[in-house]
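F.,

This is the one I mentioned.
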């Protein structure tokens, strides 16, 4: 499903290069639940953003569903992202001007799903996440944990082929975090491919594979 070959990402300041990712070679098969771990600043989020087509590498090749993403213009990458990828951001990235309901509904609008179907899908998730009473609130009226729950709901509502999650439980109480991880486990059992970034050893145990990054390199790749 995902093939990264010799991926490199760096920033230039004058003649100096600061490396974020170096010589990344990685394959993620359809149906895997993989975890990226490593210290802060090791390149985990940058790698996730490249896979999610929100960032582009400076060198290397990226194939997604056998399509050469590294050759595509931004518009084509955006289309692929909208149709196949759900993304849970560490910093929520909810749309301030939209209600909880509207934020969750947004990915379905991109896919041109009928209104009646959209309503049923959003209602089901609001119920599952115990957020029916908050559906008409705006992000600034929610706690950080509640915003993260909305972000997770928005990411999974379209049943994407690939779910990317950057510290998905980092802002949640332990009980809320377990709900999210159990949900991820069920989505994986139903066939969704999941790639999460986490510092949590406990969360890593939910997956089938751990990829450890340090100083921009993949250091280990193993089953937990």
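My design for it:
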């Amino acid at each position: 499903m995902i093939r990264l070959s010799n991926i490199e990402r760096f920033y230039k300041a004058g003649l100096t290069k600061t490396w974020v990712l170096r010589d990344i070679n990685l394959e993620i098969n359809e149906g895997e639940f993989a975890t990226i771990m490593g210290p802060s600043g090791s390149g985990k989020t940058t790698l996730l953003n490249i896979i999610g087509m929100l960032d582009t590498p400076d060198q290397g090749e990226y194939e997604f569903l056998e399509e050469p993403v590294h050759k595509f213009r931004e518009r084509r990458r955006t289309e692929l992202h909208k149709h196949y990828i759900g993304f849970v951001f560490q910093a929520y990235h909810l749309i301030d001007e939209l209600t909880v309901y509207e934020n969750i509904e947004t990915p379905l609008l991109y896919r041109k799903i009928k209104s009646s179907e959209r309503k049923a899908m959003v209602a089901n998730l609001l119920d599952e996440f115990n957020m029916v009473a908050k559906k008409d609130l705006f992000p600034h009226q929610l706690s950080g944990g509640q915003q993260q729950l909305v972000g997770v709901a928005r990411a999974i509502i379209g049943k994407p082929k690939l779910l990317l999650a950057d510290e998905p439980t980092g802002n949640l109480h332990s009980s809320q975090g377990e709900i999210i991880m159990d949900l991820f486990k069920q989505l994986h059992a139903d066939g969704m491919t999941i790639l999460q970034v986490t510092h949590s050893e406990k969360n890593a145990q939910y997956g089938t594979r751990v990829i450890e990054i340090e100083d921009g390199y993949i250091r280990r790749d193993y089953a937990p």
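The longest strand covers residues 16-28.

Talk soon.
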